[in-house]
Each structure stands twice: as structure tokens, then as C-alpha cells.
């Protein structure tokens, strides 16, 4: 098996994303039948493709022969062929043919790193583990309720921004900016511009909420980690926005590299039947453009944040959710980095003993 390119330091794991987690990679429509899609996510070089049945596969974009990009190769239905020397690899990462040297030792080997993948809510997800998954596979992908199916309807808004994903995560965990940055929004123009906050722990994360205002503006946010890190929040909607009550946003962020990220924002309402049809019509013809304007305000702010923003900030009571989230990420990153270091040391000792 090829050695994974997993980040090995705690700093890298924070900036590129913890391992042993599911990450959204791209909208499902970006991976088209018969084509190869090249992506960089969480610092990993990836190739995405669909087999003849339409099932999506996510693999390292590296031919096990000489390291050429498989994304420059040929889609053969149930396998990929490297364009450099024709080496063919299947969806499990097994080399099934070496046309230039039939019967060589590379044939039959599982030599390509393959990431467990799933599709839900219009997006492709993959599991990035510290180890290769065992025969049972990784833990199942657990989605927040509004995008898990049932009596909810949603639209996916996908973005790629030129800033660390952590800056967008800070923004999502900061309800107070709604009353300032988005004060001219049709949904966030009301309410007080001062507040007190509290944190409530949950089984999968925490809720950060105003203690003196509810259902007026961006008044609460929930951060969850179920193997997929996600943020859920509600924005009150006026009656003119149609049926379904408050407008719910589910967001998850995936680093591309240390300075760029992909953002997935699902716009959700709990509606069925004719209410679903009414909501979909209103969203596409009246509301969607307004939501993109709000996202653009966030992008413009995040992309010009200085690289040393965390090192030079001065936090106050409104920022306690940021502190809680950062502590959780750093603690888990330190644990994972220690595990990787120990494994690296053990491999080194094993190699030295073998050499003797």
C-alpha cells in the first residue's frame, strides 16, 4: 500500500482538517459520467470518477507506478488507466493490468489509496482517515437533520474562497456580526445590536446563543462534530418569504489548502407538498439572489483578513464560541499528531531492525 500523504503535525491538522472525519468535496454535478475530476481537498491530491453504475469513487491522484496524475488518464468504465504507461487501477485501488509488463509483481496489488465516499444532499463526501479503513469501513456519515431527508427541502450553495477555512468557521460561530455586517439584509435588519451570550453543551458539540433575544436576527448557532463537522443556524423569515417558518442554514467547510477552502451552505426549510413547491419557486425567483449577496459580504470580509489574525486578536464575551471550537480542534489535532508520530517511530524502528 502506498504511504498516505496525511499531514503529520498538529498545526497542519488544524489548518488542513482533522483526520478520521468526513469532508464534503464538491457538488455531485461536478463529477460527470465518463470523466475524471481532479480536486485538492484537505491538502490531498484527489481524482473523482463514476463507474458504469454511476457510483462515485475518490482516490489519490497518483499512479502507483511512477506517480503520474491519474486525472490525466483514461476512464475505462470500471477502472482508470494512467496515460503515462497504461497502468490500470480499479475502484478498490487494485492494479488490474500493467500492459507494458503483463504478470509483473505490481498486478493484483492494492497499491492506490482509496477514500470511502458517499453522496447526499447534492454533494460528494469522503472519509479522510489516519489509517486505511478496515473491512467494516469508516463510521457512517451522519448529517444534520435538515439535509438528512424527511420533511425538509434544501438548496446547496457552493463557494470556494481565498482564505483559511478557519476564518469562515469563525464567521459562522459569530452571531453578532449579523446585526452589523448584514444589517441591510431583508432577514437581519431587526433586533438589538448588543447582546449577552451563553454556551450549552450537547452530545455532539455545543449551542452558542443570545440570552436576551430569540427569533429576531441571527440569534443562535450550533456546532456539531459527528464525524462530519457542521454548523446549523436559523434566520427568522417574514411571512412574505412563504411557508415553512424560519430559514435554516446548514454549513460545512473543507480546506483546499492552508489558504483556500470550499464552503457548502444548504438553505433549508421544513416543508412538504404544496408548501415545498411554493418555497422552491420563491427561493429560485426571489430569495436566492439576496442570499448570495449576504454570502458575498462574508467572503469580502474573510478574504482580506490578515494571515496573523488569530495571533493579534483581542477577544471578548461574544467570542467564547470561537474559543471553545478552537480548543476542541487543537486538542484533537495534538492527539492525532502524537499518534502519527508514534507510528512513524515504530515504522523507523521496524525498518532498522529489518536492515540489521
TrEMBL record:
CDD domains: Rieske_RO_Alpha_N (cd03469). GO terms for molecular function: 2 iron, 2 sulfur cluster binding; dioxygenase activity; metal ion binding; monooxygenase activity; oxidoreductase activity, acting on paired donors, with incorporation or reduction of molecular oxygen. Pfam families: Rieske, VanA_C. Residues 336-345 have a biased composition (Basic and acidic residues). Residues 23-126 form the Rieske domain. Gene3D superfamilies: Naphthalene 1,2-dioxygenase Alpha Subunit, Chain A, domain 1, Rieske [2Fe-2S] iron-sulphur domain. Signal peptide: none annotated. This is Aromatic ring-hydroxylating dioxygenase subunit alpha. It comes from Haloechinothrix aidingensis.
